[in-house]
Amino acid sequence: MSNVIKLDMLINNSSVRSSDYLKVYDPGRLSELVGEVAVGTARHADEAVVAAHAAFQSWRNAPVSERIERLMAAADAVEHISDQLSTTLVREQGMLLRETQRDVNNGIKSLREVAELAKGFLTPEQFEDDDSLVRVEKVPRGVVAAIVPWNAPMGLTMGKVGPALVTGNTVVVKPSSFAPLAVSQALKVMSTFFPPGAINVVYGETDVATTLTHHPQVRQISFTGGTTTGRAVMAAAAQSIKNLNLELGGNDPAIILDDADPALVAPELIKGIFPRSGQVCYAIKRVYVPTAMMPAFFESLCAVADRYQVGYGLDPRSTFAPMNNRGQYDFVRGLIERSRKAGATVSELGAKLEPGEWDNGLYVLPTIIKDLSPTDELVISEQFGPVVPLVAYDSEEQALNMANNTEYGLASSIWTSDPDRGLRMSGRIEAGVTFINSHARTALGERHMPFGGVKQSGIGRVRTSVGLAEYIEYHAVSLNKTSCRAAV
């Protein structure tokens, strides 16, 4: 683990150095330097956009079949280095190896899915009668600025880059400073399959983001991250009326109905609470439980969570990994301690695999908290970490009101032994996605569920043809057959 990865920016298919390099450390071994990435400036961001805009002039005219062929070849190349990417991702991001493998595989799968979808989706529609012809074309927009987070960088980045490229756009990607390495290595490999400038990667913080969101040649911003930052992105985009796709924060509720069996629900529910140590935008972040069921439900949930083995992401014994960054770690630890001081019942669970390494990593035990009010800080916040509140309710109406009483509306779930009851209730949940008796997509859902939020959880959708449509404009063409026809 002594090899340090050093990455420059990628602009117009050339490596671009910087006078400043960001050091990336392992969240599970804070003393270990994993890599260094070139920190870009506003000038670098501008150069990347200009290169992408120049590439767009020819790439937009590439046949759809060529775009699909190149994207599929790029996906194959990323798959060839998937083991390396997964290991690097553990070391820079902190997640379990099986979780980073899933993220890498999800990214590859996303590229292949949009390539398949594009075959039929981009075919123009045509309508004709004796007097006229109408054709509706789906055309690319231009340069897409993709600003991606650290928690699932491969899946989320490829979920932006794939649709953008296959529809004829070009991209400038700004990775997160908390997980820039693996995704940048993948993008560099992919760039060799496309014209120079089609894929660009620029690292940096405020000045780079500001340049991308204000640049007149950027025609679309695809952003995944917090709601506060999303507001700033939206305000910046308004200056030049850019198209937006925003996947923002979530405070996703799970409602346990009174006919649910705690012993059956708990093992499945826990999978929706603590994936990637709770650092998932649509993870369950608050659980509403009937008052009469609370003791049994709390006991069942704690029993399942207590089986976790908390340790380093590359340790095969680990079933629970550290958090990603110091800021989020401090925030979550603060939520737990403030809840404890307020009189809530706090259960920190699981076992420490290497207690001697805990001061050298951002480790937090999975924590379940009850005896909270619906308005306590932990309940109304997006904690984005391994702590979850259980809130008691006395009626179904009360549970719905509490679940909906938030600015967020990303995902949600209902748990019941009566599927029809769950389906009826789902229509009253204010969210982009509602799961019933799970909190994850099924194989059928992978193919047919668009994903995105309502209210302040975002604008637009990803996945399926609905997500592909986020990257095109509709161009309507009308031909009048009679008005210019020469007289006989």
TrEMBL record:
Q: Which SUPFAM superfamilies match?
A: ALDH-like (SSF53720)
Q: Which residues form the Aldehyde dehydrogenase domain?
A: 20-476
Annotated GO biological processes are: gamma-aminobutyric acid catabolic process
Q: Would you tell me the protein name for this molecule? A: Aldehyde dehydrogenase
Segments passing through the bilayer: none
Any idea which residues are catalytic in this one? E247
The protein's UniProt keywords, in alphabetical order, are: Oxidoreductase
Q: What family does the entry list?
A: Belongs to the aldehyde dehydrogenase family.
InterPro entries under this entry? Answer: Ald_DH/histidinol_DH, Ald_DH_C, Ald_DH_CS_GLU, Ald_DH_N, Aldehyde_DH_dom, Aldehyde_DH_Superfamily
Q: Tell me the organism.
A: Pusillimonas noertemannii
> Looking at the keywords, is Ubl conjugation present?
no
GO molecular function annotation: succinate-semialdehyde dehydrogenase (NAD+) activity
